[in-house]
Amino acid sequence: MKKGFSNKKQQIQNEAVYVMFYERLHDFCLTFIKWKGLPFPDPINREVQLYLNELLFKGQTAAFLKVDPETGNAPGYIPIIGAAIPSDAVTWYGGSYSYSIQTERDTLHASRDVVALCQPSPTKRSLMSVCSWYAMQLAQAEQSIRVNMINQNTPAIIQSPPGQELTYANMFEQVAGFKPVVYGRENLLGDDKNALLAYRYLQPAQYVADKLEMLKHDILNDFFNELGISAKSIEKKAQLISDELNIDFTSNSLAKNVYLDCRKAFCEEINSIYGENVSCEYNVDMLEAIRDRQTETADNRDISGAGTETVEGVNEE
Q: Which helix (H) or strand (E) holds 280?
């Protein structure tokens, strides 16, 4: 991430903010797809799901196969998840006739007909780059909030007449301390010729931290939309016309298909090759949590019921 300050301590703080948001989005990416029917017992099953989602998050090709525990060859009856790497010449369609399957511990070899493969997306795009982009935007907004709040303490610039520096310092110290009455001698604040001598201030920084906080919500919503999760804020939906809502619904559906279709094809391959009943879907618990967050955000914005009528022909998930 680009450093915004030369101070080393500030650089460390900036990087810590970026890492915090990156890891938060990373967690979302490891849980937004839920797998069902994978032939692994609990609690290993949950660990396998996280490992599988981690492979796809990094943009790797995930593989499922069953191997013989004695020989390590496929097919067998011990299920394995790993990263698939082509081990021979690439075919005319861009694939391979055999693959090396890299697990956390071993490297296995299997022919294509006994390996089910899952791409992270049709172009093998990793979610890692998506997280990095949105984490950078969230970190910049957070840093801007911090700077804006600090700038609310912009000091006043006071120019005192020669020889009265200590008198002015004492007077404004009492003012800053909220003393109800401050006494001073004649012409303390300047004579008629220099009446504004004691009132030269820097322009206070405009307070925009509240707007930046809402910007963070919108950036996070865009991230969810990138994953195919409808998370546009309720307030914004209430103000959109029918055509705009249709566009949003269509783009969200396309994003959902990009990731979900690749994973569904993976499930179909597993079921076809090994007779399993594996499926996948968006994590319903996560969707409900996002809806609750959006409702709370809308309530905090004090949204009225005006303009929230249902738009026909638009299905919201």
A: strand 279-282
Q: Rounded CA gap, 171 and 236, in Å?
A: 50
CA dihedral of 251, 256, 257, 263, whole degrees rounded to 10: 160
Query: Helix H segments across 32-126?
Result: 44-57
Give Cβ neighbours of residue 7 (< 8 Å, ≥ 6 apart): none
Model pTM score = 0.70
Give the pair of three-digit tokens for residue 142: 């957070």
Token pair, residue 104, equals: 């956390």
Which H or E element spans position 98? Answer: strand 98-102
Tokens of 238: 């209430």
Whole-angstrom CA distances from 166 to 169, 171, 181, 198, 199 are: 5, 9, 18, 13, 16
- Which regions of the chain does DSSP assign to beta strands (E)? 33-36, 62-67, 78-86, 98-102, 107-111, 116-118, 279-282
Question: Position 3: which residue type?
Answer: K
DSSP 184: -
Could you report the per-residue pLDDT of 16-59, keeping only the tens digit for each? 999 999 999 999 999 989 999 999 998 899 999 999 999 999 99
Phi, psi of 303 (to 5 degrees): -80, 130
